[in-house]
Amino acid sequence: MQRISIAIASLLFVVSVNGCGSFRHVQTQQQTAQARAITYDGLSAMRQGQTERATQLFAEAASLAPDDFRIHENMAISLAEQGAIDEAIQRTQAAIQLSPAETRLHVQLGQLYMRRHQPHLAENQSKKALHLDRKCCAAWTLQGQAQAAQGKLDEALISLLRAASVDPYDQQIPFEIAHVYQRQGRSSLALASIETLRRSYPAGREPVELLTLEGEVLLSLNRPERAITRLARLAQVQSPQADALLVLCRAYVATGDYSNARLTAGLANEQFPADRRFALLLKDLPSMVTADVADNTMRR
Question: 152 phi and psi, to 5 degrees?
Answer without folding.
Answer: -85, 70
